[in-house]
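User: Structure with 1-deoxynojirimycin, tokens only please.
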Amino acid sequence: MINDLWYKNAVIYCLSVGSFQDTDGDGVGDFQGLMRRMDYLGGLGVTAIWLMPFQTSPGRDDGYDVSDYYNVDPRYGSLGDFVEFTHAAKQRGIRVLIDLVVNHTSSEHAWFKSARSDPDSRYRDWYIWSEKKPANANKGMVFPGVQKSTWTYDEKAAAYYFHRFYDFQPDLNTANPLVQAEILKIMGFWIQLGVSGFRMDAVPFVIAEKGAEVTKPSEQYGMLRRFREFLQWRKGDAIILAEANVLPETDFEYFGDDGDRMHMMFNFQVNQSMFYALASADARPLVKAIEKTSVRPATAQWGMFLRNHDELDLGRLPETHRQTVFDAFGPDKDMQLYDRGIRRRLAPMLDGDPRRIRQAYSLMFSLPGTPVIRYGDEIAMGDDLSLPERNCARTPMQWSVEPQAGFTKSSKPELPVIVDGPYGYHHVNVADQRRDADSMLNWLERLIRMRKEAPEIGWGDCISLDTGDPGILALRYDWRNNSVLVVHNLHPKPVEFELQLDGEGTGGNRLIDIMDGGNSEADDKGRHTLLLDAYGYRWYRLGGLDYLLRRSEV
Ligand code: NOJ
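Assistant:
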């Protein structure tokens, strides 16, 4: 089992091919470039790469508007390059997950072009139409502020079409069996080319009932089982990681009671409470979010993350908590994305303070799930708020002090490299950090190694221990006769506190520090007295170092 359910103890690195490494000098990254950086990723220790959409696209939503599901956008290379890349990844023991964007297509997709131009087109029913403007046309926008409606009139079709996102992203009629069959075909195609699964975009919308008459869309969860079943037929260890920002009450609908639907889901609930904890030094809501989402089928897993390519969505927090996070991490209007969230990268949100950035990563890595790192975070890259919308946090990877940060030979990359200020590439780049033993890059490499060697976090039961201070979080994991304890001090000052280790497991009297040294012996009442620096953190293993002998590999 341990070696089968690889995603339970993986370290995922997400990147967009276009922002990683350009080799042909057109200012856009490509698969050839990504291949040249594979040893970098191997060295960092990541076990899987999640690629943002790279299929043919007009690129009006950074590729989340696909116009041909069976091709690589020529700017990134060819299908041949893609296969070379999956092969290169496999040679290094790295799996590849790719985005699967099938809630909608681009309006430039041949299916939509055909559907709009002929009511008898075989693709007409692949989209959602209405002759009259639906009553709820001004409701349910995902991008309020830039999106005025969810129904747009199309002259050619002489009808309104439904689009949950931008008007150039018409929704597919996912209830149509032909559309479902096509989705399976798309999955089968990429599986054949070497991927280990998919990050499925906008899952709640994929499975939602759609149509002009629908006022309260119900979800067709059964579809998720069919997706999984098909995938498992084609490749037993392939997975689906769902983007589904839903309430904990419905988690089981997505995972399936028997774990027969989505293998993984991003934990948005925990993500938002984590930012509240970092902003307020109060970990109580985070503990609640962990508890609410802790029960899941044994084969299911959470994807834990700090920032991603979208804004930091704070929609699940109570109003006062949301305001606390805005005040701490995105007080200015240009740091926010309308009232949806904060569009900055992690490092600038935390004032570039290495103690806070490392603590945030240590915290995320030690939450119950599989960590997902965003490219550039390993060197604490910044953002460029002069760029529109979410582009500010999608700037090219900063490799060195060469022109354009070594990203491209072009003097005009499609998205500009960050040059000025403390996050400019002269200050923040891979080459410099590689040479510095204390750099963020080398620290994160060590964190990754440590996380991989603590499968208790990926597999085990997690309980929160009472520290007597909401600003000190202590999580204990128990799994197969082994236990790990992780403590974080969210306060900006050092703290000393006492900890009584509850829970089953071995060796609570002796804590072995697996990060920096500094073990702890309990007093005769079984209490530990621990000291943490300002924004400090420690990872301990309980008991002696013979833990490997206690673990069974079944
Ligand atoms: C969610 C993606 O993360 C986001 O970037 C995209 O704009 C929407 N889905 C639409 O595909």
